[in-house]
Design a protein that fits this description.
The complex is a heterodimer of chains A (114) and B (111). With 114 residues, chain A is mainly β. Helix content of chain A is 0%, strand content 51%. In chain A, the strands form two sheets. In chain A, strands 2, 4, 5, 6, 9, 10 and 11 form a seven-stranded mixed β-sheet that branches. In chain B, strands 2, 4, 5, 9, 10 and 11 form a six-stranded mixed β-sheet that branches. In chain B, strands 1-3-8-7-6 form a five-stranded antiparallel β-sheet, with no helix packed on it. Classes of the chains: A mainly beta (114), B mainly beta (111). The interface between A and B is medium-sized, with 25 and 23 residues.
Chain lengths: 114, 111
């Protein structure tokens, strides 16, 4: 099992460009999450999906959109990238909803916005 | 919304010493409190967790304590080893949203 797979691992964008981060899990988990990690700020929740067909905002949703494509896949889209969105993005999944059980993280995607 | 405060932000200990990291949370409805370890350049991984109906949980050299009345919980690492050096995150699951993390503690264990 691959666990949680994120693509791409690295991306450089110019201000105003758009892009989509892809995430897929093969553990048959119901819930999926997107977090961003910045130095000194910990992991901040952007969006989560408690189950297929539902999505909810987290702590820092502005500037992002998400799609729960099916039970396996949860994508994060930046419509018009800004330098403030330079960060490491982690996708995660869990069997139990809303993070009430172990989160399994992907390897992370490092995004730089110039 | 939930606010999780974590202290200290950095912690340096000698090998063999104990390390304690403390967290407070604001939402009294929070009922699940995990701790994650993140080694440099790696993904966070769960090391121990505790639920609100339990006051303490141990797993070998790691223990977590929870005081629901005071809304704080702590991670205790005994007999620290160089491989314990990492960033540690506490977290809480409040009502109506997903896991909220503290800002992390960088633990350095010197031999």
């Amino acid at each position: 099992n691959a666990g949680v797979t994120q693509t791409p691992k690295f991306q450089v964008l110019k201000t105003g460009q758009s892009m989509t981060l892809q995430c897929a899990q093969d553990m048959n988990h119901n819930s999926m999450y997107w977090y961003r990690q910045d130095p000194g700020m910990g992991l901040r929740l952007i969006y989560y999906s408690a189950s297929e067909g539902t999505t909810d905002k987290g702590e820092v949703p502005n500037g992002y959109n998400v799609s729960r494509l099916n039970k396996r896949e949860f994508s994060l889209r930046l419509e018009s990238a800004a330098p403030s969105q330079t960060s490491v993005y982690f996708c995660a999944s869990s069997e139990v909803g809303q993070g009430n059980g172990e989160l399994f993280f992907g390897e992370g995607s490092r995004l730089t916005v110039l | 919304g939930e606010n999780v405060e974590q202290h200290p932000s950095t912690l340096s200990v000698q090998e063999g010493d104990s390390a304690v990291i403390k967290c407070t949370y604001s939402d009294s409805a929070s009922n699940y409190f995990p701790w994650y370890k993140q080694e440099l350049g790696k993904r966070p991984q769960l090391i121990i967790d505790i639920r609100s109906n339990v006051g303490e949980k141990k797993d070998q050299r790691i223990a977590v304590t929870l005081n629901k009345t005071a809304k704080h919980f702590s991670l205790h690492i005994t007999e620290t080893q160089p491989e314990d050096s990492a960033v540690y995150f506490c977290a809480a699951t409040p009502a109506g949203t997903a896991l909220i993390f503290g800002k992390g503690t960088t633990l350095s264990v010197s031999s």
